[in-house]
Write a structure and sequence with these properties.
Elements lengths: L4 E6 L2 E6 L10 H16 L5 E6 L3 E3 L4 H8 L3 H20 L5 E5 L2 E3 L1 H8 L2 E5 L3 E3 L13 H9 L1 H10 L3 E2 H7 L4 E3 L4 H13 L3 H14 L4 H15 L3 H12 L9
Parallel strand pairs: 2-3, 3-5, 4-6, 5-7, 6-8, 7-10
Antiparallel strand pairs: 1-2, 8-9
């Protein structure tokens, strides 16, 4: 347990809860460093095979802590880039490239940096009460945690630019329709839905899951030919494992597979 992010582990799933409800779970330096440390710990834990991230209170995250950010900006460009931008980008890159599936359970507003961490996570389930926005433009700067790059890749250039240039909020239903989240569920069912999705993935070979995540994440940012080479490389990593032999044997024998992760 920590003050700004709570971590609870049950049945192979780690649930990270952003825990600054009085600040609408705004992302400050402590939140970033705590999340990075928790991700390192969970990656090394063989008993945990999926992560869910949600927020305490009525918000998922209102974005970066502007009060803290303003003190960094006042120190000049070099400091702002080093202490704020690169730190936030390190978090979103870590989420995007994580070898275990990460699901955002968006319980309320996800603005600015809260939207950016949602974009970076592999999957997202949203409460019917959730809303999303890119309001940085109203403060005089572009999204600094990867939002100008990931959002257009997720929803398309024109849709992405409209959100980035207007700062207008969108509903959970609109977020689903444009591909920002996978599904929208009743608020009371949010965590159960996220856990159900995690459990479905956890039935698969953890080696195959990690290989799929790696191939998709890296392949999205290169040409199709390079992407196919990345895909082949990840297949090569699982080809000699017991899991692939078990999966094929189970299929041929018409029985459930029993994956062991090696």
């Amino acid at each position: 347990m920590t003050d700004v992010v709570n971590c609870a582990i049950s049945d192979g799933i780690a649930i990270f809860t952003l825990n600054r409800p009085e600040k609408l779970n705004a992302i400050n330096f402590e939140v970033i460093e705590t999340l990075l440390a928790l991700l390192d710990t969970i990656e090394r834990d063989p008993e945990v095979n999926a992560v869910i991230v949600t927020g305490a209170g009525r918000a998922f995250s209102a974005g970066a802590d502007i009060a803290e950010f303003s003190t960094v900006v006042a120190q000049g460009t070099v400091t702002a880039l080093r202490e704020f931008v690169r730190r936030g980008q390190r978090l979103t890159a870590r989420l995007e490239n994580y070898p275990k599936p990460i699901i955002a359970a968006v319980n309320g507003l996800a603005f600015g940096g809260g939207c950016e961490i949602t974009e970076a996570m592999h999957l997202a389930v949203a409460s019917e009460h959730a809303s999303f926005a890119k309001p940085e433009i109203n403060l005089g700067f572009p999204p600094p945690f990867g939002g100008t790059q990931r959002l257009p890749r997720l929803v398309g250039r024109k849709r992405g630019l409209e959100l980035l240039l207007t700062g207008d909020p969108i509903s959970a239903e609109t977020a689903q329709s444009i591909g920002l989240v996978n599904r929208v569920v009743p608020h009371a069912e949010l965590l159960d839905a996220a856990k159900g999705l995690a459990r479905r993935i956890m039935e698969k070979s953890p080696l195959a899951v990690a290989a799929t995540l790696g191939a998709v994440t890296r392949g999205l940012n290169v040409s199709i030919d390079e992407g196919l080479a990345i895909e082949a490389m990840h297949f090569g990593l699982v080809a000699p494992t017991e899991d692939i032999r078990e999966g094929i044997s189970a299929f041929l024998a018409k029985r459930p597979a029993r994956f062991i992760g090696r």
